[in-house]
Specification:
The protein is mainly alpha-helical. The chain is 58% helix and 8% strand.
């Protein structure tokens, strides 16, 4: 083995890496019941990461001062600005945009997690197996279902597509992960 000096430059499209991670977790969640809760959690977390990374990708394209601007804006304000700037005129309380707000609420609940006391009283029909795994959970725990993970994932993909096309960036926003050019000396 020889030591070589490699130099070059490239571009990493972070939102695609995050969305790929969410997609893989979703595939695992669909295939296996064991660990499904955690795979659903991963889908939600990485979907939020993908959306945030796409906001930064799009923001840098739309605003020359995005680096300064982005830290001062909430996720909702970023989404509103993009909606207005790109003349989308979407109702952010409706799907697929509602999912953006939902997934950021989920991410924030985990990122700023606290020990919570929970109480519940409900009448449910459970099998003996269901009863063994029944949990009274928090709002973020209740969000970790396969149905919700699928809803969030596909809606985040759709929002990225719509923003990408409205910004005139063209083509499929999910093709490019990494590009580089380098030389070995």
């Amino acid at each position: 083995m020889t030591k070589e000096t490699v130099s070059g430059s490239g571009k990493v499209t972070t939102y695609n890496w995050m969305l790929k991670s969410a997609r893989i977790a979703l595939d695992f969640a669909r295939e296996e019941e064991e660990g499904r809760f955690f795979q659903n959690m991963n889908v939600l977390v990485y979907s939020a990461f993908a959306m945030e990374a796409y906001f930064n990708h799009l923001g840098a394209h739309l605003y020359s001062d995005w680096q300064c601007r982005e830290r001062k804006l909430s996720k909702l304000k970023k989404l509103r600005q993009f909606n207005e700037r790109l003349h989308l005129n979407r109702d952010l309380a409706e799907e697929p945009y509602r999912s953006v707000l939902d997934v950021f609420d989920f991410r924030d609940a985990l990122a700023h997690g606290k020990t919570e006391n929970v109480e519940s009283q409900e009448t449910v029909e459970l099998t003996e197996d269901d009863l063994r795994s029944y949990v009274i959970g928090t709002k973020w725990m209740d969000a970790c279902t396969l149905e919700n993970a699928e809803r969030i994932f596909y809606n985040i993909e759709e929002v990225i597509r719509q923003l990408h096309n409205a910004a005139g960036l063209g083509g499929n926003p999910f093709i490019h992960y990494h590009s580089s050019a380098y030389s070995v000396t």
